[in-house]
Amino acid sequence: MTTPEHAAFDPEWLITCLQRARNALLANLEGLDDYDVRRPMTPSGTSLLGLVKHVASVELGYLGDCVGRPAGIELPWDDESAIAESADMWATPEESREWILDLYRRSSAHADESIRSLGLGAPASVPWWPEERRETTLGFLVAWMLEETAQHAGQADVVRESIDGTGGSDHDAIGDAAHWEAYVAKVQAAADHFRD
């Protein structure tokens, strides 16, 4: 068993942490129809399926291409003009939900294999980063990807709650509807002290 002070150097522990963040992201799609997972829920157009598509794309880049292990998966939105139009952040009608979820499963499996086969000290190069910090290691990119995935999983929690009121994974364990109504009222009352 890995002790906490050495966990950061254990590839399997990092894969476990990454998988937890992946699962948290994907959990937000459960029980929703195709419209709800695709519709823009923020002024910048964030959607649940778009977040999954984006994270899958980024994972293929950082934990595949950048460590010399391209997955051989063609991404039609992986060129400069498509990236400039944020084509990786939303799902077209032709991109089925199952296709995007399968893409994420494949990108995750490929990333995990990169980590296991190359090791955290393996050299990596990120061509889209500034030249002075382009050269790095797989371990650094795993940490980068863990942060990226966790950030988008948190966004997905908020988007999901905006769609149907379903809170994060511990929402129901903390309290029922009456608890949350009272809690929100308390938070609102505190904020009201600063209302103009």
Question: Helices, strands, pairings?
Answer:
Elements: H1 11-27, H2 34-38, H3 48-62, H4 80-84, H5 97-118, E1 123-125, E2 135-137, H6 138-164, H7 171-174, H8 177-192
Antiparallel strand pairs: 1-2
Helix pairs in contact: 1-5, 1-6, 3-5, 3-6
How would you portray this structure in words?
The protein has 196 residues and is mainly alpha-helical. The chain folds into two domains: 4-165, Four Helix Bundle (Hemerythrin (Met), subunit A); 171-196. Helix content is 57%, strand content 3%. It has eight helices and two strands. The protein has helices at 11-27, 34-38, 48-62, 80-84, 97-118, 138-164, 171-174, 177-192, and strands at residues 123-125, 135-137. It has a two-stranded antiparallel ribbon with strand order 1-2. α1 packs antiparallel against α5. The longest helix is centred in the last third of the chain and has 27 residues, at 138-164. It is globular and about 55 Å long. It starts with 10 loop residues before the first helix and ends with a helix. The relative contact order is 0.15. The mean pLDDT is 92.
